[in-house]
Design brief:
CATH topology: ph1033 like fold
Number of domains: 1
Strand content: 35-45%
Structural class: alpha+beta
Strand order of the largest sheet: 2-5-4-3-1-6
Helix content: 10-25%
CATH architecture: Roll
Largest sheet: 6 strands, mixed
Radius of gyration: 14 Å
CATH superfamily: ph1033 like domains
Length: 137
C-alpha cells in the first residue's frame, strides 16, 4: 500500500463533503497539473491518503482510501487528464497543520513542507506514521 496527500479548498470541496459521499466516494477531478496527475496514475485501490484543507486552514483533517484507479476525468474531454475515486475513512481527532509539519524535523523532506502547492502528492511510510501520531491516531 502506498500513501498520498490530497489537497482541497474547503469552501470548494471539504472534508464534510467527502464524508457525506459515504462508501460511494467521489472522483478527485479537476486536477490540471502533470505531476499531480502522474501521482494519481500511480495509485492503486486500497492506497490511503491524507485529506488536506488548503487556504486558511492548511491542515490534514482526515484519511481517505482510493476506491477506483486512474480513469478519464469526467470534467473534461481532454484525454490528458485522469483522476481517481476516493472515499472518506476516518477523521483525524486533531488536525495536523502545515505549521506543525514544518516545525517537526522528521518531516523536513516531506513534499508538503517543500512544495505545498502540489495538489496530489506522495507521502512516505514514515511521514504517514508521524502525521497519524500527531493527529491522535
Amino acid at each position: 500500500m502506498a500513501f498520498w496527500l490530497f489537497k482541497s479548498e474547503p469552501n470548494t470541496w471539504g472534508w464534510d463533503d467527502q464524508v457525506a459521499r459515504g462508501d460511494a466516494g467521489e472522483e478527485w477531478d479537476g486536477v490540471r497539473n502533470y505531476q499531480a496527475r502522474n501521482n494519481m496514475r500511480a495509485m492503486r485501490r486500497g492506497d490511503r491518503g491524507f485529506f488536506y484543507h488548503s487556504l486558511k486552514e492548511k491542515a490534514v483533517v482526515g484519511i481517505v482510501e482510493v476506491i477506483a484507479e486512474s480513469h478519464p476525468d469526467s470534467t473534461t474531454d481532454d484525454p490528458r487528464w485522469d483522476c481517481v475515486d476516493i472515499k472518506a475513512v476516518q477523521t483525524l481527532p486533531r488536525p495536523v497543520t502545515l505549521e506543525m509539519c514544518k516545525a517537526d524535523p522528521r518531516l523536513a523532506d516531506m513534499v508538503l513542507v517543500n512544495n505545498s502547492r502540489l495538489s496530489v502528492q506522495p507521502v512516505t511510510d514514515a511521514e504517514w506514521q508521524i502525521i497519524c501520531e500527531m493527529g491522535g491516531l
